[in-house]
Amino acid sequence: MADFASEGESVGALAEALDGEFVSTLRKCALEHGTAIVAGMFERSCDERRPYNTLLAVGADGELLGAYRKIHLYDAFGYKESEQLTPGDVAPVVVKIGDTKFGLMTCYDLRFPELSRALVDAGADVLVVPAAWVRGPLKEHHWTTLLTARAIENTVYVASAAQNGRKYSGLSQVIDPQGVAVAAVGEADGFAVAEISGERLAEVRKRNPSLANRRFTVTPR
Q1: Residue 111's CATH number
Q2: Under 8 Å CB-to-CB from 201, ≥6 apart: which residues?
Q3: What is the C-alpha separation between 43 and 32, in angstroms, rounded?
Q4: Domain termination site, one of 63, 88, 113
Q5: Does 182 lie in the same domain as 103?
Q6: Confidence at 219, pLDDT banded by 50, 70, 90
Q7: Greatest CA span in the chain, whole angstroms?
Q8: What's the pLDDT tens digit per position in 63-91?
Q9: Is residue 73 part of a domain?
Q10: Domain CN hydrolase: where (predicted)?
Q11: Among residues 117, 111, 195, which one has the least CA distance to residue 155?
Q12: What is the model's pTM?
């Protein structure tokens, strides 16, 4: 939809409701091309200067399948995202596309394994992670390491779409439940195509039943 504002400024003027022009355009695109779309937007909140960072899932029929308001705001590495955005409620959002369930999370959420586990507990087969992962010392290493860890520890696919350019790291990729990057894009513009296999998911979980063997459960609060 749009990039973030400069420090001290607001993205509030860019925000729209879920029945606004941006979502309507996404729905038309999905219907026209016969494909599901996951995309981010700034959604109006009760604070006109601090909207939600919302992730939308639209089905191939143009219907809005779900909306996830980013929970964890990026108040780290010298940045203060909470000055521009309002956090969403602590609740996992999972949508079904065909026979596959997709758990929605955004950028900085990747650093919090409890959200990934809550999404898997809610039935997610794939974690979808759009991100504007800011460049910096070791940041690219953190990105790839955390994506791989979320896939391995939850025995799920992780599909990440990351902005690139001078400010952001790029490195979009799809990782399978064993932590193997089955498709990837480097720092340049591009796209990656990967097949999500239910058989692969079942086979990995049979060989590595870490979800079945765990002793703790996650209860969102």
Answers
A1: 3.60.110.10
A2: 125, 155, 156, 157, 177
A3: 24
A4: 88
A5: yes
A6: low
A7: 50
A8: 999 999 999 999 999 889 999 999 999 99
A9: yes
A10: 1-198
A11: 117
A12: 0.94
Residues of the domain holding 44 = 1-88
> Does residue 44 sit in the same domain as residue 147?
no
Contact 14, 42 (CB under 8 A): yes
In the DSSP assignment, the letter for residue 65 is E
Q: Are 85 and 76 in contact (CB under 8 A)?
A: no
Q: Please indicate, yes or no, if residue 72 is contained in any of the structural domains.
A: yes
Alpha helices for 90-185 (secondary structure H):
113-121, 139-154
Tell me, what's the pLDDT at 220?
55
pLDDT tens digit string along 173-213? Answer: 999 999 999 999 988 889 999 999 999 999 999 999 999 99
Burial of 44 (0-12, 13-18, 19+ CB in 10 A): middle
Both 68 and 100 in one domain: the answer is no
